[in-house]
Design brief:
- The protein has about 150 residues and is mainly beta.
- It has one domain.
- It is built from no helices and 11 strands.
- Strands 1-4-5-11-8-9-10-6 form an 8-stranded antiparallel barrel.
- Strand 8 and strand 9 form a beta hairpin.
- The model has no long low-confidence stretch (mean pLDDT about 85).
Length: about 150
């Protein structure tokens, strides 16, 4: 599977710089093997707090088996538990891991994806993990081409 995400925390300023954040944003793009990208964003940005703006390139990662891809082929309306673990970095070259678990009411094992990038663009002053629960909605199809989309302005 291939994936990319962008996260922007709200109302934070990177210590020792004039770089500040005044918006909230989370978008993720996923492409199961043999399919095209689909993009998703949050239905509400209220819980998106964390002193960071992080954008990864497209990352290829493996799931345990092909059946693990099925829950991630269409996430529109899915409630997910997201944990982003960034390092401290300013102006690109950062490291971040995202873990996303689909929340379900049944007792079956949860569906989870995790991928890592050491080529993140942006900046992070986050101390510790950034965690939120969100309901995802599908992005318009003109925003599905993950490799061509960029949100970090530098």
């Amino acid at each position: 599977m291939d994936g990319k995400f962008v996260f922007g925390g709200e109302g934070a300023k990177i210590p020792g710089t004039d770089f500040g954040l005044s918006f909230a944003l989370f978008k993720i793009w996923l492409r199961p093997e043999g399919q095209g990208f689909k993009g998703y964003t949050t239905a509400s940005n209220q819980a998106l707090l964390g002193a960071a703006i992080i954008e990864t390139p497209v990352i290829s990662f493996a799931l345990r088996d092909a059946l693990d891809e099925q829950p991630f082929t269409n996430l529109h309306g899915a409630t997910v538990d997201v944990t982003i673990s960034p390092n401290l970095f300013v102006m690109n070259g950062g490291i971040a891991t995202i873990k996303m678990i689909i929340k379900r009411n049944d007792a079956a094992s949860p569906h989870e994806i995790t991928f890592f990038s050491d080529e993140c663009k942006g900046a992070s002053a986050a101390l510790g993990d950034i965690h939120f629960v969100a309901t995802l909605v599908e992005l318009p199809s003109n925003e599905w081409d993950a490799p061509s989309l960029t949100y970090v302005p530098f």
